Amino acid sequence: MPRTVTGVSSALLVVAVSRALPDGGRSSGLVAVDEPVVTADDLGLTRGDGCFEGLRLVAHPAEGGLEAEVPNLGAHLARMQRSARSLDLPDDPAPWAQLLDLAAREWATSTTGRPLARGEEAAPREAAVKLSMTRGLPQPAGEPVQPTVVVTVSAVDAASLAARRDGVRVASMTRGYGPEAFAGAPWLLGGVKTLSYAVHTAAQREAVRRGADDALLTAADGTLLEGPTSAVLWVPGGGGVPRLRTVAPGSNGILGSTSQQLLFERAQRAGWDATATTGTLADLRSARAVLLTSAVRGPVAVRELDGQPLAVDSALVSELQELAGF
Amino acid sequence: MPRTVTGVSSALLVVAVSRALPDGGRSSGLVAVDEPVVTADDLGLTRGDGCFEGLRLVAHPAEGGLEAEVPNLGAHLARMQRSARSLDLPDDPAPWAQLLDLAAREWATSTTGRPLARGEEAAPREAAVKLSMTRGLPQPAGEPVQPTVVVTVSAVDAASLAARRDGVRVASMTRGYGPEAFAGAPWLLGGVKTLSYAVHTAAQREAVRRGADDALLTAADGTLLEGPTSAVLWVPGGGGVPRLRTVAPGSNGILGSTSQQLLFERAQRAGWDATATTGTLADLRSARAVLLTSAVRGPVAVRELDGQPLAVDSALVSELQELAGF
């Protein structure tokens, strides 16, 4: 299967697709990265109608080459399953896991074939995986959904690598909803990781316009929510047992973060007082450290909020990054 | 160019695409309807990042066959331009209009080739057009966007034809935002017709779950907004000059409706008192007629709201449908 990394679709390394064919069958397997994968009427393209997961792929040296591993895979598949159910999409994780495994093996194989740079053997290689499912083609009423599933493996972007090292500048902005907007209104898809991310990307462009690197969304009453593609964490000031806080999901519509949950479990085992709560921008301004966390980028320090520097306790940030596996 | 109408992509008649190629060039033209058109990393697919217009295509008998016309084309292209600007996408309508023209001509030609059904000659044939633009492939920071543009022509679905004749049952539900949520927050993309329609389609599924055909969205304070793919109109009770009302767009985030605007202009010329205002569900319950309007389906009567029958003044509905060109 030819895979060309081109000037245009630069970051894609591997693509695997499963989709319905005109004859009623399915096509499943690897495709070239520059090969189109969905037709013009796929509801993922026309309506942003589907869900996704962003996962990290790491390669460990193994006999005969490298072995690919997706950290926290179970949590990602479980969240994808919840998203699928919220969208009335098929929720069996087996086909996703199979396609993911196919793409991960292909990546590990092709990575092994590449000559290693000096000293590179010691470090695990990594990549970004995206697992997406769309509603596929419109079906007659009452007919079962024939979803399109797409798995991509991409190089981790330079901005993410820089953010791990240097932290990020963040601009806060409203998400427009009141803090309880999603109570009893499942059609608003609160906490569902849908493909309809136009507002999330517009918020990130607004952040760049304001001289920041990423956005931090707040509810209409000013309470903290999340980043467009991350959860927000903070270490409150004061002594004693180190504390770690994040915003609890619920009727505020925020997404349950797999990387935050994993980090909090590990931090608790390491002796931290780590709990989900509510918060405000003032809590961040008085914190010893503020972080955004997501699966691929990991926990990164927020060094500036709305143009004002934040305290960054580098030792704490490093400890949390290490606990998270970065 | 082979075009097969298949069991799966049933409604598609014509597809035209313009997209960036790996070698830096562009590919523009007609493609087979069952041919995939976007790659796995197209931001329209991965983020619902783009905008679209739904347009009606009608065919008039002309010398040598049929001539395709898009009613209200200027208003659609102008709205697409506003959507593009709101998303920081290229806003020159010329490429869209060219691709649209190509697809419309192909449709008219292929429609002419089809044997006419008995008595069909007298009526203009029609189809549904979708003009979409995505942000294309991720580009390095500072590089210009290379959008993907897709135009599809589809058969008008049976449900739309039935709705014109029989009206629809509607279920009201909150959109979650307060009535002024979009003031000063352009990143929330209020009034922008983005490809991120997952909440709109979830609202329509919720409506079906409640035994209705379509949804009617309200603000968090209960004031009227719009349907997921339509504007709401009503004819208040009482005598005198017939009145026509709709919800004014603005900081409520609703979309300026091209078909509502055209209808209101024509209604005013026909002697109606037609203005945009604010409204509540109570206004609909006391109205002589309530309608949803959109470009392809046209104005259709709402005959039931939340399980309760509404008054339907059939003569008024017919007059409004005729004024709108249906």
Give structural notes.
Two copies of one chain form a homodimer. Chain A is α+β, with helices and mostly antiparallel strands. Helices cover 27% and strands 29% of the residues of chain A. Chain A contains eight helices and 15 strands. In chain A, the strands form two sheets. In chain A, strands 7, 8, 9, 10, 11, 12, 13, 14 and 15 form a nine-stranded mixed beta sheet that branches. A six-stranded antiparallel beta sheet of chain A has the order 2-1-6-5-3-4. The longest helix of chain A has 20 residues. Chain A is globular and about 65 Å long. At the A-B interface, strand 1, helix 1, strand 5, strand 6 and helix 5 of A face strand 1, helix 1, strand 5, strand 6 and helix 5 of B.
Number of strands of chain A: 15
Main beta-sheet strand count, sense and barrel state of chain A: 9 strands, mixed
Shape summary of chain A: globular
User: What would you report as the Rg of chain A, rounded to the nearest angstrom?
Assistant: 20 Å
- Nearest-integer average pLDDT of chain A: 92
Taking pLDDT < 50 over at least 5 consecutive residues as the criterion, the unreliable ranges of chain A are 1-9, 116-123
Task: Give the helix tally of chain A.
Answer: 8
Share of helix of chain A, binned: 25-40%
Seen as an oligomer or otherwise, the chain set is: homodimer
Strand content of chain A: 25-35%
Order of helices and strands of chain A: EEHEEHHEEHEHEEEEHEHEEEH
Biggest chain contact: A-B, 80 and 80 residues
**Structural class estimated from helices and strands of chain A:** alpha+beta
Distance between the termini of chain A: 33 Å
